[in-house]
Design goal:
Chain lengths: ~550, ~110
């Protein structure tokens, strides 16, 4: 875990004091809303349908038990007893009072957290693979890179007012769990033929109104050149990105309109110009500082364990529910005898990503006791315990059952991503959560969900696509049509390294038509799949959209 | 032919809490839509907005929203977004305005929005 140094502490405290003062001036009437709005957005404070919403950054999704307990405490003391984990590894509080914001931010600063740059046209919270430092397929831990980018991008004076918001994701594994191809910049860590570490740099990905899959702008960037190269991309974007039309202001549009070859030429020219500067580029980090950051992410002191656990095997033989949960919610760990636990915040009929104060405290306890005091937030709105001994899984499962967090559905059809939608969001055009809840109940029967297998449903309540609907195997987009909520279905999306944007299946349908339509779609898939191991997305790619469109609109 | 004017009210969000508020006939603010001042003409709408916009120390983002009137002349929202604003999250009837007004917890299907 990264720990703040003196500069970090002073900077965050100063920002809290500054924003507390700005907020008081707004309350006193000294600032108008036009003056205050950009200030509050730079500090993560939105005004939503029913109240203010505070978006708190969880940098690259990593936090410890002390931080999770503080998130729980804030929910209890200043909010309505719950928080919402988002698709960008953040947490949102939906009932923030303006008069409490300063105290909330001070409480966050106490545990080295903040809400800076979680909104606005700046470089947002950097996201990373939620299995970082634990995944068996990992080339290198992406979090030191993400932390370096966080330090470079925080309050970067040149990039505080970009044409539009800017999102960066990093993965250290070839299996892309960080959705890198749907980010303004995606970084995939790899090694060259000589074994030197570096990055494949992807630029111009994004979802929203105009979904684009990111394009490779540099096949291999040596690790040491990262910041000058990012600086070059941001400079080209800041100079040439459109500011006349917010719908065409993201870098994906610039890359699309400029062409990746010309974009590459401009970025490389700016990069070379920096590299030729006397004394080297201004943003080349001190190697000592890089080593300091890397040291914070050193692997925990794992015990020397056998790969299998007799304790766990015996417990699973006696408890089918435990066995089902272990089979589905654990992933291979780099250290023998350890596993990665995905705690699905997706109980039947619950709002995806919503966790109560009690649940957050329970997760903090589990992280502290069983996972080397580490937790992660995933973009799939789940919580990860990254370093759990297989011997401890029965105890972890029992505690999760107590906390109503033992849903054995990670990666299955009920592990649904959904944005807050029109139940909370001022931008939304339709609700998302009730649709997710309905689907969660329809496919709640464990044997059925297991039989369906890997299946992603992603739901957004407006075209901005916070629910990643474009890249769900099934995407659901809520819109308004003639004064009522209407839902468009897309098929064939993929959020991984084989990213694909889903194809619109047909006309929109009402909310109460969505559930039955998805059930027909799933039945059609089960009838047509080549074998039990063929995932929906593979059947879809083999057969095309037609049989599934027919199933959706059969009624 | 001029488009028929639909009755309107002024809605905004409370500055400190962010809760949904409506302008009343005295130029103040109420949390109850039933107490909102109603504009029956474009001119009355402009007058209401003219009274709302200077009140930045109390509210955020005042705007005119369409309403319909029941048999007793009380306003009710015509758009599903405004219906949700009179209640709170449809998935959390324990929160928002509806929490204080349990009788308003209508089934979603009856809201006309779904």
């Amino acid at each position: 875990m990264y720990r703040y140094d003196e500069f970090d502490h002073d900077y965050v405290r100063a920002r809290v004091a500054e924003f507390r003062d700005q907020t008081q001036r707004r309350i006193d009437g000294a600032l108008t809303e036009d003056e205050y709005k950009p200030l509050r957005l730079q500090n993560g404070l939105y005004l939503q349908l029913h109240a203010y919403m505070l978006r708190v950054a969880v940098p690259y999704g990593t936090l410890d038990s002390r931080q999770m307990r503080t998130l729980a405490m804030i929910a209890e003391r200043w909010d309505e007893g719950y928080g919402h984990f988002t698709t960008r590894q953040n947490i949102q509080y939906n009932w923030t009072k303006l008069t409490d914001v300063g105290d909330i931010l001070d409480a966050l600063a106490d545990v080295e957290m903040h809400a800076i740059q979680t909104s606005g046209n700046c470089i947002r919270n950097v996201t990373a693979d939620h299995f970082a430092g634990a995944a068996v397929d990992e080339i290198e831990d992406p979090r030191p890179t993400a932390e370096l980018i966080r330090q470079w991008s925080t309050a970067h004076p040149e990039f505080a007012y970009l044409p539009r918001k800017f999102k960066v994701a990093v993965t250290g594994s070839p299996n892309d769990r960080a959705v890198t191809k749907a980010h303004d910049i995606g970084l995939r860590m790899l090694r060259d033929a000589q074994g030197n570490p570096g990055y494949e740099v992807i630029v111009g990905g994004g979802l929203g109104r105009t979904p684009m899959i990111g394009k490779v702008i540099r096949d291999f960037l040596p690790k040491a050149d990262l910041l000058p190269y990012l600086e070059a991309i941001l400079r080209v974007y800041n100079l040439n990105g459109r500011r006349d039309n917010k719908y065409k202001a993201r870098i994906k549009i610039l890359v699309h309109e400029t062409g990746i070859e010309e974009m590459r030429a401009q970025v490389e020219a700016e990069f070379e110009r920096q590299m030729r500067e006397e004394g080297g580029p201004l943003v080349q980090p001190d190697p000592e500082q890089v080593r300091r950051i890397e040291a914070y992410f050193a692997a925990p002191d794992f015990a020397d364990l056998p790969a299998t656990s007799e304790t766990l095997d015996a417990a699973m033989a006696a408890d089918p529910a435990l066995a089902a949960w272990v089979a589905n919610n654990t992933s291979a760990h780099r250290a023998p005898g350890y596993t990665i636990v995905t705690v699905a915040i997706k109980g039947t009929g619950e709002a995806p990503g919503d966790a109560t104060t009690a649940q957050m405290n329970a997760l903090a306890d589990l992280g502290e006791r069983y996972s080397h005091d580490e937790l992660r937030i995933s973009h799939e709105q789940n919580v990860i315990l990254p370093h759990v001994k297989r011997d401890d899984l029965p105890a972890v499962f029992a505690a999760l059952q107590q906390a109503e967090l033992a849903a054995a559905n990670a990666g299955l059809i009920t592990d649904i991503i959904a944005c807050p939608g029109l139940d909370y969001c001022a931008l939304a055009t339709a609700r998302s959560i009730p649709v997710a809840q309905d689907l969660s109940e329809r496919f709640a029967e464990p044997a059925r969900a297991k039989a369906i297998g890997s299946f992603t449903i992603k739901i957004s309540g407006c075209i901005n696509a916070c629910g990643h609907h474009h890249v769900g195997h099934v995407g659901i987009l809520g819109l308004e049509k003639s004064g009522i909520e209407s839902y468009q279905i897309t098929l064939g999306g993929d959020h991984t390294e084989t990213m694909a944007v889903g194809e619109r299946a047909g006309p929109g349908m009402s909310a109460d038509e969505v559930g039955p339509a998805i059930e027909r779609l799933v039945d059609a898939y089960l009838e047509r799949r080549a074998n039990d191991d063929e995932r929906f997305i593979d059947t879809y790619r083999r057969l095309g959209a037609d049989p599934f469109k027919h199933a959706l609109y059969a009624a | 032919m001029a488009k028929e004017f639909k009755p309107k009210i002024v809605s905004a969000n409370d500055l400190n809490i962010g809760d949904v508020v409506y302008m009343n006939s005295g130029g103040g603010w109420t949390r109850k839509l039933a107490e909102a001042a109603i504009a029956h003409t474009p001119e009355e709408g402009e007058t209401l907005m003219g009274r709302a916009e200077p009140q930045q120390a109390k509210v955020v983002g005042p705007y005119l929203a369409d309403v319909a009137l029941d048999d007793d002349g009380r306003p009710f929202p015509t758009h599903f977004r405004e219906k949700f604003r009179t209640r709170g999250p449809s998935t959390r009837p324990d929160l928002g305005k509806q929490a204080a007004n349990p009788e308003r917890r209508e089934p979603l299907a009856a809201s006309g929005g779904i």
